[in-house]
Design a protein that fits this description.
about 30% helix, 9 helices, 10-stranded antiparallel beta sheet, alpha+beta
Length: about 325
């Protein structure tokens, strides 16, 4: 599929005399296009290729949304980098606190969540087990799903507890992003699909650029991760599409979470560039989170929450760049 991108006056080469790096653009001016919709102005691709990813607060958001943005340069063309994003497994890096990451088929069954039985018995997973047994108000399930957790025995994420979660997750994965049951276990009526749509609409420039990127069901995956020392089960889907002049867009939509946040969206814009005569990709990443706990944060507390998000993004971007290939 193709998408509309803002084109500026074409130029073939732009030579930057920085430590022997020469950078050329396969499209008009990726840095200028980046500046047109993001918080990053005057990005120097050659300098960025040599340094660490840049991470910044996103535009101010109200209510229960926060955001952050980052940009970095990776070796290889955007088609290769977009495929690497799709295949990358954050669970290989313990510092990212993703305990399990696994792809799902288009129509998953409970058997596709069998790895729950081998989940580590650490404090975060124990907290999830305890919340499940008590049907905690922090648990994000539907009233219908409550029935699967009634009178469960066990003190670890194995046996009946793992089986109950596998049934819930497989049913939600089959429903897909747009047809999720609400989180109404405690009388609320939060709908993850509406939260995702609201995140995409929260910024006009980003929403317009990525309009339609979440079309279809995407390539689904599930994770067991740690958020604020609590175990969280989540379902997500990855999307990507090619654009003009070798560009790509990609997105990861986290459309279900057992707790911690309502929904999450990570968007990517990829431009082809050359660094030192070699093909490379300039990557912009935008992260948007919807969470009930954020709504009560103001001032310095809200800034601190965004700063924590930025630290996590910086780790993930640096590790992805290392795994995929930094520009040399």
């Amino acid at each position: 599929m193709s998408f509309r991108s803002v084109q500026k006056l074409m130029r073939i080469f732009s030579f930057l005399g920085l430590a022997g790096f020469a950078v050329s653009s396969a499209i008009a001016d990726p840095a200028a296009e980046l500046a047109s919709f993001s918080v990053f102005n005057n990005i120097n691709v050659a300098e960025l290729a040599k340094g660490e990813p840049k991470v910044a607060h996103g535009p101010a958001m109200s209510g229960h949304f926060i955001s952050a943005q980052s940009c970095f340069v990776v070796a290889g063309v955007p088609a290769r980098v977009s495929e690497a994003l799709r295949q990358w497994n954050p669970a290989r890096h313990s510092e990212l606190k993703v305990l399990i990451h696994s792809d799902l088929p288009s129509s998953p069954s409970a058997a596709n969540f069998s790895r729950l039985n081998s989940a580590p018995n650490n404090g975060a997973v124990q907290a999830l087990v305890s919340a499940t047994q008590k049907l905690s108000p922090d648990l994000q399930i539907s009233k219908e799903e409550e029935k699967r957790f009634a009178n469960l025995s066990g003190s670890t994420m194995t046996g009946p507890i793992a089986a109950a979660w596998a049934e819930v997750l497989s049913a939600r994965a089959r429903a897909g992003r747009s047809s999720q049951p609400p989180y109404d276990h405690t009388g609320q009526n939060v709908r993850p699909s509406e939260e995702l749509n609201a995140l995409l609409r929260a910024n006009d420039k980003i929403g317009g650029r990525f309009s339609g990127v979440l079309n279809g069901k995407g390539e689904q995956f599930w994770e067991l991760l740690t958020a604020d020392e609590q175990g969280v089960l989540t379902l997500g889907a990855s999307f990507r599409r090619s654009g003009a002049n070798g560009t790509f867009q990609a997105a990861d939509a986290l459309y279900y979470a057992s707790g911690g946040y309502y929904a999450g969206l990570t968007l990517y814009q990829l431009w082809p560039v050359e660094v030192g005569g070699r093909p490379a990709t300039l990557v912009w990443r935008g992260d948007l989170i919807s969470s009930a706990t954020i709504a009560s944060l103001h001032g310095i507390e809200r800034v601190a929450s965004e700063s924590a998000l930025m630290r996590d993004i910086s780790k993930a971007a640096s590790l992805f760049r290392r795994d995929t290939g930094a520009v040399r």
